[in-house]
Specification:
It is a single chain. This protein is of the alpha+beta class. It folds into two domains: 104 residues; 124 residues, no CATH class. It is built from two helices and 18 strands. It has a five-stranded antiparallel beta sheet with strand order 9-5-6-15-14, with no helix packed on it. A three-stranded antiparallel beta sheet has the order 10-11-12, with no helix packed on it. Strands 1-2 form a two-stranded antiparallel sheet. Strand 7 and strand 8 form a beta hairpin. Helix 1 packs antiparallel against helix 2. It is elongated and about 95 Å long. The two termini are 22 Å apart.
């Protein structure tokens, strides 16, 4: 395989990764708190002996779109939506994870958990709990959670210490990769959930564009393969 084919193949590999990311975005267009993901391409120079270096395309990372999703009113007592840059912090078997999905439920002991059973953490990293027999639960914009008018917890809101290392996991969870820092200038809304920030029409347009680019690269590789086969057959007859 000669240099143009290597360059095209590197680009095609990146396009295949981008197709996977777009498909995942579309699949999660209705997932509460989901953050759209993108692929970051970079140029990678590869030595080519005495010839000029090859410029290879490399899909070296993925980015998380931090754009605000629409807030949908649910009137749920334990449905909380974040407005601004920040995440809830939950405790999972794999460690602490960030999420924008604010649908919580009290367990038998009054601890607020996600539908998957992950405990919501407060500003100090401790589980958030409410009295099981509380008649009224209210959430202030600053994250103060009160039961029957008495403050019982301060819901923690955090940001990844290094946004470039933020990675998607299942159930709208994100691994910060490098710890977290407190978020500022963030408001909470009770009785609301944040929808996915994926725009299905935009993602479908991206999907078609990337598919066409991938198919174009594949046609080039097929023609290059035919050219090499023809050259080998000609040399074999000589």
């Amino acid at each position: 395989m000669d240099s143009p084919a290597y360059v095209t193949l590197s680009r095609q590999t990146g396009l295949a990764r981008e197709l996977d990311v777009i498909a995942n975005n579309i699949a999660n267009a209705s997932t509460t708190g989901f953050r759209r993901q993108g692929v970051v391409f970079a140029e990678h120079m590869r030595p080519a002996g005495d010839a000029p270096a090859l410029s290879m395309a490399r899909a070296h990372g993925r980015s998380i779109d931090s754009a605000q999703g629409a807030l949908r009113q649910t009137n749920g007592r334990y449905d909380f939506a974040i407005e601004g840059a920040g995440f809830f912090l939950v405790e999972t078997p794999g460690g602490e994870r960030l999420t924008r999905a604010g649908h919580f439920l009290p367990d038998a002991e009054g601890t607020l958990v996600t539908p998957q059973g992950h405990r919501l953490l407060d500003a100090g990293g401790a589980p958030v709990a409410v009295p099981p027999l509380a008649a009224a639960i209210s959430l202030a914009a600053d994250g103060t959670l009160s039961a029957d008018g008495v403050p019982v917890a301060q819901i923690g809101l955090f940001l990844p210490a290094d946004p470039a290392r933020l990675r998607h996991e299942a159930d709208a969870l994100l691994d910060s990769g490098a710890g977290t820092v407190p978020a500022e200038r963030v408001s909470l809304h009770q009785g609301f959930l944040e929808e996915s920030n994926v725009n299905p029409m935009t993602e479908m347009t991206r999907l078609i564009t990337v598919q066409r680019s991938y198919e174009l690269a594949q046609r080039f590789l097929d023609r290059e393969d035919e050219r090499l086969r023809g050259a080998l057959q000609t040399l074999g007859r000589s």
